[in-house]
Amino acid sequence: MKSLFAFMKKEILEQIRTGKIILLGLLFVLFGIMNPAIAKLTPWILESVADTMESSGMVITSVTITAMDSWTQFFKNIPIGLIAFVLIESSILTKEYSSGTLILSLTKGLERFKVVVTKATVLTVLWTICYWMCFGITYGYTAYFWDNSIAQNLIFSIVCWWVFGVMVVALMVVFSTLAKSNTGVLCGTGGVVFASYMLGMLPKCSKYMPSYLTDGNSLIYGLTDAEKYMPSLIIAAGLSVICLVISIPIFNKRHL
Amino acid sequence: MDMLRIDDLHRRFGEKEVLKGLNLSVPENSIFGFIGRNGAGKTTTMKTVLGLLRPDRGEITVAGEKVEFGQTATNRFIGYLPDVPEFYSFMNPQEYLYFCGEITGMDKKEIRSRTDELLELVGLQYEKHRVKGFSRGMKQRLGIAQALLNRPKLLICDEPTSALDPMGRKEILDILMQVREQTTVLFSTHILSDVERICTDIALLNDGKVAVQGKLSDIKTMYRSDEFLLETETEADLVAIQNAFPFVEKIGRTQLTFRERKHTQFDVLNFVTNHRIRLSKLDRVEPSLEDLFMEVVDK
């Protein structure tokens, strides 16, 4: 247990001293502020381009902004946040292979599963903090300017997206135990997510695909029932658990 | 007792068979030089001992306990210094040793005292900068400190001096000499002068097998040549000897060598006495490790 904490402490110190925490923090705070800000600025932006649009035949009448616009922005921006998160953290394990830093820890008697557990925990916690912080900021500003209560299933839609992110983290972990470099991690993780989106286009499969969880807009506008999200929610959660569990024996067998 | 024993170790990488039945035994409290050309399989052997590579065949024991691949419990007996040690560059030496102590499960008090002791041994006690800007020599020294932290019974160093300048090499060799009382040292190298300087035992690795192994002094005696070197005071004396014994070989103005056949040395000495030739030197030529290495490798 002591060695697990020591390795975790090292991991957190690394995240701080290499500036990754600050970078992620700034990024997600920025997204959190941007979502309501863009919604708030929409009338002003439209007004400023009204003349040009009028000359091309479009007439802008009055624009009413509600909390829904802010949450639409949230679901539009959060994928970019997740992509940035994956890019920044993709080398969390592979960097230790290429530099050889892990060899010294393992030959000191650190058990291999603790490495995987630590990396998975740190990534999940980081994603959770970044994501909910972004949500919190958007929620606060949106509540201040408009009324959050008009969005249906808000918390459920937010949880769905968070679970999708956790699944992406689990994919990162499992591909980190398989791949030699972070390119492999990015390709593997990206590949699975891409495949999920592709299969999601087939009407029969769509509601079973984890990518279905990213359609938060349909939930908050009340276009789909929350129950319809359950299969994909269960599949995403199950896939996350499977990824994390199998990454331990894979890592145990890895030659370093 | 043997601190490390390797029996019939085989390992191939794809088509290439790197280890072809390697046998090795490292006696306790020795400084064991593991010598071989680049690519001979030294690092592969060491990584297998550390459980980082799975052998195709063969058995390894450390301090009497069998080495398992993956979850390697025998590593608690071992301190390891890789050829190019890499540390977490965002830590300073002290932080790194603390981290190592904690993952090994040492208690706080011991970590503190051992860290101070070892940083002093390797001359990094005043170094407060992060590892990021360290030179190779500094990294190598910190590497030795981390390897010795939990008082290992066996210290394994993979070419610890290869990448260093003469000054850095001397420092590392001095440290290895100093720790001999505390631990058994196994170090791989292709720098033979380092071996002659500090090793008590050696093994020559060639073509995936150990070609020669034993105490350095024994091996030198075993391979002692029958060659003598004789030095006279004047060149005229040397010419006189050369005329009397045509088989001698002149190698300098006043130096010649000859090989012992049927009492050649007594005949030569008789001649020297009878002709009152003054000698400055008569020496039996010691084989250098290099000659030995060449002989083994060329076989």
Taking all residues together, what is the mean pLDDT of chain B? 89
Low-pLDDT stretches of chain A: none
End-to-end Cα distance of chain A: 23 Å
Instruction: Indicate the structural class of chain B.
Output: alpha/beta
Topology:
The complex is a heterodimer of chains A (256) and B (299).
Chain A: H1 2-17, H2 20-55, H3 67-89, H4 94-99, H5 101-107, H6 112-145, H7 154-178, H8 182-200, H9 216-220, H10 230-252
Helix pairs in contact in A: 1-6, 2-3, 2-6, 3-6, 6-7, 6-10, 7-8, 7-10
Chain B: E1 2-13, E2 16-27, E3 31-36, H1 42-49, E4 57-62, E5 65-66, E6 78-81, H2 93-104, H3 108-121, H4 136-148, E7 154-158, H5 166-178, E8 184-189, H6 192-198, E9 201-206, E10 209-215, H7 216-222, E11 227-232, H8 235-244, E12 249-250, E13 255-259, H9 264-274, E14 279-284, H10 289-298
Parallel strand pairs in B: 3-8, 3-9, 6-7, 7-8
Antiparallel strand pairs in B: 1-2, 1-4, 4-5, 9-10, 11-13, 11-14, 12-13
Helix pairs in contact in B: 2-3, 3-4, 4-5
Polypeptide structure, described:
The complex is a heterodimer of chains A (256) and B (299). Chain A has 10 helices and no strands. The model of chain A has no long low-confidence stretch (mean pLDDT 92). In chain A, helix 1 (2-17) crosses helix 6. With 256 residues, chain A is mainly alpha-helical. Helix content of chain A is 76%, strand content 0%. Chain A has one domain (2-252). The longest helix of chain A has 36 residues, at 20-55. Chain A has helices spanning 2-17, 20-55, 67-89, 94-99, 101-107, 112-145, 154-178, 182-200, 216-220, 230-252. With 299 residues, chain B is of the alpha/beta class. Chain B has 2 domains: 2-222, P-loop containing nucleotide triphosphate hydrolases (Rossmann fold); 227-298, 2-Layer Sandwich (Alpha-Beta Plaits). A 6-stranded mixed sheet of chain B has the order 6-7-8-3-9-10, sandwiched between helices. In chain B, strands 2-1-4-5 form a 4-stranded antiparallel sheet, covered by helices on one side. A 4-stranded antiparallel sheet of chain B has the order 12-13-11-14. In chain B, helix 3 (108-121) runs antiparallel to helix 4 (136-148) and helix 4 (136-148) packs parallel to helix 5. The model of chain B has no long low-confidence stretch (mean pLDDT 89). Classes of the chains: A mainly alpha (256), B alpha/beta (299). Chain A binds chain B through residues 2-3, 5-7, 9-10, 13-14, 17-18, 99-101, 103-112, 252-253, 255-256, and chain B through 47, 50, 52-54, 70-73, 75-76, 78, 80, 82, 84-88, 90-91, 99-100, 102-105, 146, 149-150.
